[in-house]
Write the structure tokens for this entry.
Amino acid sequence: MFLKGIKDRFKHKSALKYMREELQSPPHPLQRKRGINQIGVIVDLDKFPRPEAFEDFVDLFGLRPSGVNVIGYKKDYDKNSPYSTPVFSDKDLGWNGDIDNGYAQEFLSREYDVLLNYYTKKNLMLQLMTVKTKARIKVGFSKVDKTFNDIILDSELKDFDLFKKEVHKYLNVLSELVA
């Protein structure tokens, strides 16, 4: 038990070091052009338990049903329990910022036009997923460190309709939406 605590602390430190290095390096160029075809969502399921709400973005942006990819974070979860959304947790932290979770690896293997960071608390796993995700535009809340997002919204996590309207408005201003 004692050694596991030391091991977890070293994993945490190595992940923080990885994240700082990634934030200081220039972003990786993406091949994606203007327009919205793929949206990735990282949601804190402990604070917002309705991940199916993000399906509204399919209609809002005229996407294919597979155009929105959602992954959820839970502080603790049972791997044998069925979840409607792929889930990762603190238990999945590996060495040097690796995330040892098949769902997370599959999420990170894709490129997105927009990444929606739907969480308001500073959490290593959520921020690590944000840093590792390849996306042209990252949208998040003002309560999280501003270095993680390109568009920062000052709204409440509970007010999903306002968040949805604001995302649409700002993407329209950036001429990302094709008329």
Remarks:
- The CA atoms of residues 139 and 167 lie 8 Å apart.
- The helical segments are 2-24, 56-61, 102-108, 124-132, 160-173.
- The mean pLDDT is 88.
- The radius of gyration is 16 Å.
